[in-house]
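Collaboration report, partner site 2.

Our partner group contributed sequences for two proteins of shared interest, and the home lab folded both. The records are reproduced in the order in which they were received, starting with the first partner submission.
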Amino acid sequence: MALVIRIGKSVFFYFDSGLNQNYILIGLLACSAIGPMAYFFTKSQISGEKTFDPKSLWHLTPMLFLAGYAIFYESYGENRAFWSSYIVRGIYVYWGIYMLSSIFLIVRERFILKKRFAEERWTQGVVLGVLAIWFAYFTSSFTSYLTGSLTFSFLVYLLAWMLLTQRKNKVAKRTKQPTSKTLSSSEIQVLKEKVSLVVMAEEHYKNPNLTMPALAKLIGQTPHQFSSFINDQLGQNFSQFINAYRIEAAKNMLIESSHLTVEAIGFDCGFNSTSTFHTSFKKATGHTPAAFRKLTPDSSGL
């Protein structure tokens, strides 16, 4: 979206030099957000975590600062020379820093840690595409202001072709993919122990945003393999699977941590709401957390 706003402004400005200065300012603000957004897209693709962390909003501080500067002090139209010479160049440098950080994440994961991640080619294509657009704008003073827009148009078609080709190949592989191997009882037990070690010993169950692909990566399996293990071998979905570990941890805390409230225990064990904790706990044990605590003697006083 930030790229679309930035490119749209460039096209309008190229064909209409008398464009309202507020539109130009909106384009510049969007430009300051492109780098951070590309970085978090890359980070999300590599980690498998698709939820947004509100703490990451501080990366958009320059955009908010520029908006405040333009509104309360001096807008683009009031001092175009200063904005063009210093602020716009600063925005491009800020954008470039995040693009280098995005490339570093990919290089570290792929060539230093030697790990693969989902939609790898697509991620690399998007990052390189945004980098090409950044380069076109960064050098626009030496070429043409429309270079960035033309680069964007070319890359949209190229990335769309890459995405369609990738999806087509995935469908083809899925149709040719043999049915998942049925694991023996001993293999299932070994894998269960490995998962328990990762989830419980390292306390990953406490993360309310834990996803199946992220956990699969932690135990050294592909998302497809791990999903097959949970669905076909255990007969559960991922939510049921991870909540079972959370409930076991909650049962221990309800017995041993009488100073904590039921709600605090639920959140500490990875449930993102009190209602989900109560519903899941009662379904698994037949009792609400509060009732379970009353039925069980407090071992902390022994």
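Second partner submission, folded after the first:
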Amino acid sequence: MNGLQLRDITFSYRRKGQGELAVQQHLTWHVPTGVTALLGINGAGKSTLLSIGATALMPKGGKVSLNELDSHAQQTQFRTRVAWMPQQYRAAPGLTVREQVAYSGWLKGMSRDDSWRGATEALARVSLQDLADRPASELSGGQQRRVGLASALVHDAEVLLLDEPTSGLDPEQRAMFRELLVKAGWAWIGLPVADGWAWACTSILLALGTALWAWRPNWSIEVRAS
């Protein structure tokens, strides 16, 4: 089966004085083609699940793969094909907007010239080309979120993993996000339950602690893990 797959994933946090807190237990999920919204209240495990998919966190058990690539055994190749925009995006001190995005491309394996060209194109896609030479740390919160998206888009990854990407954006900027994501082959987005535009996604995954409920385009409902 092609695409991003999580198989038998188990993950827990260790909390001082409380032992292990299970977040996911034996989760198996194949991210479908199109845009999948991962909905849930704060603390439901959305960021953890997206972080596992991006290899920012490693599960205690199970396997994450993209097509033939194993995220553990072939981590470098896996990361070049999966883009990750965390919920808290911070620009590196001292870099301009274009340098910030180009640096992200270089970290994903692009050459210096390719990452610079890719940064210019990615900034145009999020309507920040006019601010390319401004220090990234001087941008507003909404503009920095767009720099984060450009950093995820710079290397033309097969899969986009975005954690609350529309937080702090105005309606016009949210519409821009929607237009970009419609063109994505695979995108998995963590969103608060109250985020209205999630319902325009091609499928919806609802996080309820260690349980996941999935809605498909035909609006049938099924329990995926518990």
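Feedback sent to the partner group on the second submission included the following. The first strand starts at residue 4 and ends at 15. The first helix runs from residue 46 to 53.
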